[in-house]
Amino acid sequence: MFVGQKGDSLTRLPAAHPSIDEVQLISAGKFRRYHGEGLRQLLHAPTVAKNFRDFFKVAGGAGQAYRLLGKLHAKVIYTPGGYVGVPVGMAAARRGIPVLTHDLDALPGLANRINARWAARHITALPPEMYKYPVEQVVYAGVPVAKEFQRVTTKLQQEYRQQLGLPADAQILFIIGGGQGAQRINDAVLTDASSLLEQLPKLHIIHVAGTTNQQSVSDRYDTMLPELQRRRVQVKGFTEEVYRFSGAADLIITRAGATNMAEFENQHKACVVIPGAALSGGHQVKNVQRWVDARAIALLPEDELAKAGTLFETVSELLTSPERLAEMGERLGSFAKPEAAKTVARTILEVLYQKNHKDGK
């Protein structure tokens, strides 16, 4: 059973998945806070008003979740964070239902920090010593990804290119700024796209700009690129086939989101990583440190994007060095945890077994 948030359009994805028997939606609220803003955000009236409003959404959602968990006869709750996890976790605690949290980032999100006080297990994406949880409650699993994200061989890369109608000898640059896109990455790529396409005559760009940005980004490409260059650029709003595009790529430009990075780890892909510096708690900045230490990625801080030519120089240097691309892919792939989903499933079953044993079942 999947419990999602009312108003979230992405709940259509689990609803369509054959492993999900039922989807239920409840109210949930967001506590808005921005890394690096300090006390200023506490004095920003619109932010304060929205947080106050969403407090009541959480309270209402907790009541809805309490009734729902009773109706479903829920025996165990798994939550990888997110706003909806708070009211569900609160309701589960009241009903004595064990909760398993899963921290997908180096810094636990607020939802998991709230649920941590009654969690039976803390599943983590990174080694246990990076978290402040009791060691005996931590399960180091990594980040579960879809089975399609597997190591990409030269043969598989060519298969993906054929399926996408891309030339076999092309250089493919894939840009994805997360599920909703990333405006600053979109702007930086648009600024340097013409220069890259001119310098690299075999370059093709596949740009996932975000659903709300798709038309505007496409229009800007239409305006700024001559026809022959424009034919080598594809703009997507959202895709459920990231694995196919990333698998076909030589180089990926991405945020440091846990799921996307775990996917690219499994594929052994070379990445230029641009962490979202203002995202809550600065978790993406923290996420990248281990990859930087291992020289597994090309790190490009977000504040560097505004400097003319920075993205162009980084991308062109990498795309003209296939040996470095291969080395980066291998180094990033060394962090992959392909058994993550099985580890999570096994942990859920262990907690369920312990609960049933305790209840005499």
Can you give a write-up of this model?
With 361 residues, the chain is of the alpha/beta class. It has two domains: 2-143 and 339-358, 3-Layer(aba) Sandwich (Rossmann fold), CATH 3.40.50.2000; 154-333, Glycogen Phosphorylase B (Rossmann fold), CATH 3.40.50. Helix content is 45%, strand content 14%. The model has no long low-confidence stretch (mean pLDDT 90).
Please write out the topology.
Layout (H helix, E strand, L loop, with lengths): L1 E4 L6 H5 L6 E4 L18 H28 L4 E3 L5 H11 L3 E5 L6 H6 L3 E6 L13 E3 L13 H11 L6 E6 L6 H17 L3 E6 L5 H11 L2 H4 L2 E4 L5 H7 L2 E4 L3 H10 L3 E3 L9 H5 L1 H5 L4 E2 L10 H10 L2 H12 L6 H19 L3
Parallel strand pairs: 1-2, 3-4, 4-5, 5-6, 7-8, 7-10, 8-9, 10-11, 11-12
Summarize the structure.
Helix 5 crosses helix 9 and helix 6 crosses helix 13. This protein has a 6-stranded parallel β-sheet with strand order 9-8-7-10-11-12, with helices on both faces. Strands 3-4-5-6 form a 4-stranded parallel β-sheet, sandwiched between helices. It has a two-stranded parallel ribbon with strand order 1-2. It folds into 2 domains: 2-143 and 339-358, Rossmann fold (3-Layer(aba) Sandwich); 154-333, Glycogen Phosphorylase B (Rossmann fold).
